[in-house]
Structure formats: structure tokens, C-alpha cells
Amino acid sequence: APLPLKDPGLFREANHVGGRWITARDGATIAVTNPATGALLGHVPSLSRAEIGDAVAAAHAAQAGWRARTAKERAAVLRRLFELMIDNQEDLARIMTAEQGKPLAEARGEILYAASFIEWFAEEAKRVYGDTIPQNVSGRRIIVQKEPIGVFAAITPWNFPTAMITRKAGPGWAAGCTGVIRPADDTPFSALAIAVLAERAGMPPGVCNIVTGDASESGKELCANPLVRKLSFTGSTRVGAILLAQCAPTIKKTSMELGGNAPFIVFDDADLDAAVAGAMASKYRNTGQTCVCANRFLVQDGIYDAFAAKLVEAVRALKVGDGTEDGVTQGPLISRNALGKVQRHVDDAVKRGARVLTGGGGHALGGTFYDPTVLADVPRDADIFSDETFGPVAPLFRFGTEAEAIAMANDTPFGLAGYFYTRDVGRVFRVAEALEVGMVGINEGIISTEVAPFGGVKASGLGREGSKYGIDDYLEIKFLCLGGI
Ligand code: ADP
């Protein structure tokens, strides 16, 4: 049955290139299914590498015209796109839940979050300032201007199908760049709906190109094509490393939002209820499938049992099911592969001596639904300590001292987000400064917002998205030296 949309025109089984809706020349397609039901939702084109190259050429052709507009004119188009996203929030959320599985309430929230990047960067477009620098030699003037970098490519994941696009394309478009966006195979319809709205907002042909196709072939073209001047990627560290290597020959600027292994530290002096509420939001949102999800709960001896008991109570109150049903808080995992990894992590921890406090296996609904799980007394050599689970499993590790907690937290190649709960002001700064991460939640379990810089250190990536910093990645600095005055 077709999706119940107020505006069926938002659901497009075609790609958007150079202002036209196209299919693959050879007719190849990719099937998209609903992870909650397994039902077929539709097909999107599987473009060849050459056709991805055509999309880059279309973006390049549109570049001069878009960049020549004033920032205020670009901002007006982005503002209309923001408003259209808000007006169509319900349909966009329904498309997202159908292809991604998250509960409708979360999908509605993601549409607001995604739209906020368009609004924010519409405003930031007008604040791309340069500099004048006192001359080093008399008779000279030294001027610094910022210019759009050129065509950007965005390769985005399935866990936030809309927000990961607007967080990249918003600053790109605002800066005066044109782009080629390649969404994940699992969630292309959310992306294509944005192209429909961008067109309605008056975005000129070729500014917003959205293509679907084989991941590896599209990635090769977007990395190797010399017309692409910047690649922004969100996904796994494994694929990020492949893309960085593929970008090396053409010396591309890159932004990489990669995997995490977030510690969530609960100190003895924490507000227990607040820590449990933060843990629930950080761990179980999107069924544990976010790159900033708490992956390791480090809990101090004195509060360990009380925290475990309260967490289990909260986890048992979660409702697993199809995201379109009322009251559901936990959708399915995205795929069988994802389910397999979650189960392997749980089995491995149990084999090494962890206790299952709740959950521990597939949910009675079957499919890729997983029972929200809490594990206690997990040993540090368990796989779940070093590898991102990306599912609804909270492993509790025990520690004694602050120094031990910091050492455990940093004992990973990753450094995206970290969280901790304490009411000691001195400890707030000691721990926040010691954590090797790009983002710290202190007595907060959800920290993402368009106004703050999102990004990681170490193997979690390069660059920052959102905030006043997020537009820098789409700009080049040009120095003008004017002599003979
Ligand atoms: P996840 O675990 O979130 O699926 P991936 O890194 O596998 O993380 O995927 C993130 C995005 O990268 C998706 O759009 C996926 O299709 C794409 N992708 C996967 N492999 C490659 C590749 N070799 N080249 C380019 N893109 C890829």
C-alpha cells in the first residue's frame, strides 16, 4: 500500500540531477524496504559511475551562477526550504519512519532538527566575514576574503536520513557551493523528498543534486572527480578511511564524522534520577543507532547497584514495535547484519562473565526487533568495550576512582562524544578536560543542536558540522595583496 502522505509528490522514485528527475540509463534500480515489516517501499535508480560523474558536471555548471548571488539571495532560498520542511514535517516523518524504522515521534523530531540546520545556515550565509590585516610594508594593503570552495559531495548514512544531509548541504549551499548528495541505500526517499522541496523553494537547477547507486562505485567517482573540491562523509571509520585514501590523489578537503565509542560515566555524587534519564536518552534513542550513543557505561562502586536497578526499571518500560504505532519508543534495527552484531556483542560479554539484567536476545516480534538490554559486571576485555554496538544494549562496567574512570574512557582509538554525571564543580572541569573527545555532555544525555559544533577527535573524524564553525569547511581563504598605493 502506498504511504499515507498528504502530498504524495514528496515520494520520488527518481534521482534529481541538474534540475531534472532522472532514472538510470540502463534502467537499473535498488529496492528499498521497510525494516519494521520487510515490505517493499519502492525503487530508486542505481546510477552508473559515469552518471554520477554527470551529476558532478551538473553541479559544476550551476556553481558560477549560485556563487554570484548575494548571500542574502541564497539565504532567502534556504529560508523558504526551511519553511517547506516545517510545513511538510508530518509527511517527511512518515517517509523516514517507513524506510528507517524510528518511531514517528523521533522522526518528527529529526525533521525539526534537520530543518534547523537550513535555518541556521541561511542566517550564517550573511556572516561570512573577511579581514583586513595591517600591512607589513607601506604602500601595500592586505585583504582576506572567503570564497566558496566549489562543488561538494556528501555521502550520508541511514541513521539520520534527513539531518545528516542538511547538516552538510545547509552550510555548503549557504557558502555558495553546489553539491552532489549520495544518501544511504536504506534511506534514499527522505533525501529525495528534500530535493523536491529545494526545487519548490526556488533553488536553481544543479545546486541540489541527489543520486543513488552502488556505494563503492559512487564513492570512487565522488572522490576521484577533480571537479569535486570537498567531500563530507558521515559513516563508519572503516569507510571513512577508504574515502580519505581515495581523496588523496585530488587533494580534496574532507570532513569525516566517523564512529564513536562514547563513555557514559556515573560518579557516586551524581543525581541518580538525572543520570538514568540521560542514560536512557543517550543509549536508547533511535534504538541505539546513533554515533553519539553511549556505548560504555562506567559506573562508580558506590552508586553501581542503585544505577543498575533504576536503569533496568526504565528499560523495561520501553515499548518495542513498528514506529507508526502509538507509544512505541523502540523501532527495529536497520538490518539483519545490525541485529547480528548486537547479538554477537551480548553473547561475547556473557561468555566472558557479564550478567544479563534485562533483555539479551531478539524481541518476540521477530524480524530485526531486539529486546532492549542491560548487562552488568561486563569485563573490560569484552568486545563491547572496544567496538561500537549500534544497538539497544547498555553494558555496565565498574570503577573505583576518578583517575580509573578517565583512563578507561580514553582507552579507545575513538573520540566522538563522552558523557558524565557528577555534582562536584572541580570534577566537572577535570573530567571534561581529560576526556579525549570532541563533545562532552555534563549532566546531559542529548547534546546535539545546530548551534554547537559537532565532531570528533582521534579515529572519530575530521572537521566540525553545525554552529558558526560548520560553514568554514565549505570556504577557502583568499589573500589579496594590493601594492603600489
Ligand atoms: P553504516 O555502518 O552507518 O552503514 P557505512 O560507513 O557502511 O556506515 O555507510 C555510510 C555511508 O557510506 C552509506 O551511505 C553507505 O552506502 C556508504 N558507503 C559504504 N561503503 C562505501 C564505499 N566503499 N564508498 C563510498 N561510500 C560507501
From TrEMBL:
Highest taxon, organism lineage:
Bacteria
Mention any Pfam family matching this sequence.
Aldedh
InterPro entries named among the record's database cross-references = Ald_DH/histidinol_DH, Ald_DH_C, Ald_DH_CS_CYS, Ald_DH_CS_GLU, Ald_DH_N, Aldehyde_DH_dom, Aldehyde_DH_Superfamily, Succ_semiAld_DH
Task: Supply the alphabetized keyword list.
Answer: Oxidoreductase
Q: Name one GO cellular component term.
A: cytosol
Keyword check for Oxidoreductase, yes or no: yes
Q: Which GO terms describe its biological process?
A: gamma-aminobutyric acid catabolic process
Q: Does the keyword Oxidoreductase apply?
A: yes
| Residue ranges that the Swiss-Prot or TrEMBL entry lists as coiled coil | none
Q: Which PROSITE patterns match?
A: ALDEHYDE_DEHYDR_CYS, ALDEHYDE_DEHYDR_GLU
Domain annotation Aldehyde dehydrogenase: ranges = 21-479
Spell out the molecular function terms from Gene Ontology. succinate-semialdehyde dehydrogenase (NAD+) activity
Catalytic site: E257
Instruction: Report the sequence similarity comment from the record.
Output: Belongs to the aldehyde dehydrogenase family.
Protein name from the UniProt record:
NAD-dependent succinate-semialdehyde dehydrogenase
